[in-house]
Every structure is written in C-alpha cells, then in structure tokens.
Amino acid sequence: MVTAVRLPLDWFYEREAQHPNKRYLVQPMGGGQLQELTWGEVGEQARRAANWLRALELPQGSRVAIISKNCAHWIIADLAIWMAGHVSVPLYPNLTAESVRQVLEHAEVQVAFIGKLDEWPAMAPGVGEHIRTVALPLHPHGRFHAMWDELQEGSPIQDSPRPAADQLATIIYTSGTTGMPKGVMHNFSNFGFAASHAIELFGVGPEDRLLSYLPLCHVAERMFVEMASIYAGQTIFFAESLDTFVHDLKRARPTVFFAVPRIWTKFHMGVLAKMPAKRLDFLLGLPLLGKIFGRKVLAGLGLDAVKFALSGAAPVPKELLNWYRRLGLELQEVYGMTENCGYSHVCRPGQYREGWIGQNCPGVEVRISEQGEVQVRSGSTMQGYYKEAEKTADALTVDGFLRTGDKGEQDEQGNLRLTGRIKEIFKTTKGKYVAPAPIENKLAVHDRIEQVCVVGDGLPQPLALCVLSEVGRSEAGSHAREVLEASLKRLLAEVNAELDQHEQLQRIVLVKDIWAVENGFLTPTLKIKRNVIEGAYGERFQQWAENRDPLHWHDEEHA
C-alpha cells in the first residue's frame, strides 16, 4: 500500500498558482548575463514541451532522457516529461559514448533532451539514430531533431496531469563504482515521502535560496535542490562553470548548502592557500574578533548566509568539522543512498557526537543484521532495479528493508556509526579482515592529502595510496619537501597508533596521478573507484609492501 503524501506535480501546480510572478530559477547565460524564470514561466514552458511530447503519441510511461549539466531547463524538461505521462532518465553529463549507449539501450529511451555539455562530440555516438533529440536553450553545437524554441511555438497543455502515487517517475542510474550501473526505479510517492518529511525536518521555505552545482542526475541534488525547491518554494541559482564557481556561490548566497566532503576540503585548502594555518588559528582564537573574522572567511566563500550546511557521500574528518565550527558553520552529516532517495539519516543541530552520523530521519526504520549490516525501510525505498529482478531481490529483504551494504552500529540515542563497506572489506595474508573506509578517514584529515585509498587484499599489511593536494604537490617540488615528508611520516605514526596491529599501514605511497572523473578514477559524484585504482597500481603492490620506508614517491620509481 502506498502512503498518502502530496506528490511533486501537486506541489508545483499550487506554487505556480499562488505566486506565478515569483522568481524561481536563476540561470547564468554567459558574459555576465542572467536569465530569471518565474514559477509561471516555468509552468508555461513545461506545458508547451509536454504538449510536444504528447504529440509524439508514445506509449504512456515511455522513457525520456535528460543529458545535460545543471541548468534551469533540466528541471523544466523533467516537469514536462512528467506532465506528458512519461518517465525521466537522467544521465551524467560526462559519460563516455559507450556508457551513454548502455544506459539509453537498457532503459529503452525514445527521446533525449540535450543541454549544457562540454564533451558532446565524444558522447553523441552513444545516442542511437532512432532516439529523437531535443536541444535545450543552452546546448552544444550539433544536429538535433528539434530545438527548445520550436517546442515553445506550440500551445501549452490545458490540463494539469496528476500521476498516481505508485506511477514510475524516474529511473536513476547509479554512478557505477563497480561496473555497469543499475537503474533505480522511484515512483512519485517515493519522492513525495522523502521531500515532504525533509522539508518539515529542516523548516525551510520560500525565502530560502539554493545553489545547484552537483549533478542533478544524482539523487542528492535531485532531492536537496529540485524536490526541495518544489516542496518548499525555494529559489534555485545555477552555477555557470568550475571557473566561476566562487562567484556563483557569492551571487546566490545560499541559505541551504549541500556538498560532498571533497568540496568542503577544497574550500578549506583554498583558505589555507591564502593564509597560513597558524595565522588563521590565531585570528580565530581572538576574543570577540575571532567570530567576526570567521564570518569574513565564510563571506569570502559565499557561505555567510547558510542556515543548514549538509555533507554526504562519505564521512567528514572530525578536524574538518571542527575547523568549520570555528568559522561559525555547523556541518550536518547526511547518510542515504540512491535506492532510498538519499533519505535515511541526518545529524540534528546541537546533537553532534564525534564519529557518528546522527539519528534516522522521520519515518525511517533501522535495524542492524546479524552480519552487522545497516538495513533501512521507509516510504522512500525504491521499487527495485529496472529489468533486474535478481539484483532487486538481493537488495531488498522479504519484509521490505533495503540492504545498504554498509556495516554499522547504533547507540542508545539511535545515532548511527558506519564501520565500513561489507564488500570493500579485504583480507590480508595474515587472515585478518580490514575495513578501509575508517582508516582513509583518519588520513584525510591532513591538509596536504586530497584523496586516499587503502588497499591490502593479499598483502601482509595494508598500504595507503594518496594523492596530494595542489599545495602539497607544489611543496613536493620545492624546498618545503622535507617538512612535507616529516609531516606525512608523523601522520602515519599517529594513525597507526590508533589502529589494531592487523590494520596498521605498512607505508604511505604518494601516487603521481591525479584521480579525476575524466581519467576514470572517480565516479561522477567524486567517489573513488577502488577497482580502477587497484587495476592501475595492483602490479606494484607487492613491491611497495616489501619496502620498509614509511613514505614512497611513485613518480620517482625507475622505469
């Protein structure tokens, strides 16, 4: 039975009717120009596009793709797809042509909206000739079956379609850390359950502002930006590019801001690149003036208006949480998955417990299995994986709990702590099991380490593969190298002192490569792909394990 909640289009129609002239979407158009769209204008454009889709006479529930970086018309296209009675299939804007082809063929996509993209010539071969392509207002050069302006020449639909709660709304393909992505099916009730509860939990409303910059095709941005704006009436500002990001952030001055730990780390490193840590600590420690200075630092980042600062996808090192707290910004950690709309756990303000995420969200049931796996159940749990009955049965228990794949524990207050991934745990040659994630989190506190991956399957002791930050790489090639090396060796000793003997790291390996989405080391959501990293360096693991030096520079190996 589907829980009775208000659904996304119901909310959209209400906001469109209540304040049609209120600003909703703010889109940079290049050259300093901005396009502001009201709720009424968004509804008008969506209805005209829905009419064009209806005229194609596709079967109800046909899959329609959105291939674009974040932009105002990404959301308008999503609304149009729903109004026309179809299912939206968002794709990451930086996929290879082969990955695009896999998803489009698997989902049996009939139409694709093509928007803001950097690498369209490389992606385009993945779009089959039978798929009708529509160019959004911001689009790459190329040939398309129709342009957005052409869709807008038609009349808008005259009705306000209200899909059933159990009707499929979207198929979200996971970012594929271990191979072919799975298509997560969510109906309108899933979105409604998660969004309505989340808005109530945070108490946000029409006066709040959001900045959209993480991929909208990912469940986090879909919920924290698209659904949150529809359910709370917030204004969405869009980022123009990586180069203009800080300017975009200052322009938006968001009141709610979600980021992954790597973004929070980059902000931190950016501040330290302009001001030495010792001087910053001194200024923040001054009575009265310290608070004023902290607000200035936040204003420089565009974060001085933030009421709720959220972080998800991976743990945030406690030192980084404390650093932001000194600035006057309390980061609240969020835990969730694509399979439950990202709605599971969040740390409540003032209830932070070091090392713990926080309590389960309203309406979410949690249990820990005999194997130590965290399992959750709520109205936001997926309907299953598209065309994957066997994988769906593996992911969902008979009584409807989602197997998260995360190991964890709960305290008496219901706080959750994750202790590793069940499938990521590896066994050393000593027959001992090691969970890499907690160790990686301890290493990530160092302000010269940007990324880390702990490996050790079949080795006597684990190794830590690390990528230095931009500042760290600069110091490595200068007179500051000795200080950097001493600091990293101290870090290794301090981390090992906190670990059981079988978990202790043999050494830190500073790899010469920069792990990025473009070279395949990271998923589009900036998570490391362990299988790719192990494939790239695996043949050297034994050699690195035999060396007893605590620090090794990959780029200094003899060819």
TrEMBL record:
<dbReference type="Pfam" id="PF00501">
    <property type="entry name" value="AMP-binding"/>
</dbReference>
<feature type="domain" description="AMP-dependent synthetase/ligase">
    <location>
        <begin position="14"/>
        <end position="386"/>
    </location>
</feature>
<dbReference type="GO" id="GO:0004467">
    <property type="term" value="F:long-chain fatty acid-CoA ligase activity"/>
</dbReference>
<dbReference type="InterPro" id="IPR020845">
    <property type="entry name" value="AMP-binding_CS"/>
</dbReference>
<dbReference type="InterPro" id="IPR042099">
    <property type="entry name" value="ANL_N_sf"/>
</dbReference>
<protein>
    <submittedName>
        <fullName>Long-subunit acyl-CoA synthetase (AMP-forming)</fullName>
    </submittedName>
</protein>
<keyword id="KW-0175">Coiled coil</keyword>
<dbReference type="GO" id="GO:0005524">
    <property type="term" value="F:ATP binding"/>
</dbReference>
<dbReference type="GO" id="GO:0016020">
    <property type="term" value="C:membrane"/>
</dbReference>
<dbReference type="InterPro" id="IPR000873">
    <property type="entry name" value="AMP-dep_synth/lig_dom"/>
</dbReference>
<dbReference type="Pfam" id="PF23562">
    <property type="entry name" value="AMP-binding_C_3"/>
</dbReference>
<dbReference type="InterPro" id="IPR045851">
    <property type="entry name" value="AMP-bd_C_sf"/>
</dbReference>
<keyword id="KW-0547">Nucleotide-binding</keyword>
<feature type="coiled-coil region">
    <location>
        <begin position="481"/>
        <end position="508"/>
    </location>
</feature>
<keyword id="KW-0067">ATP-binding</keyword>
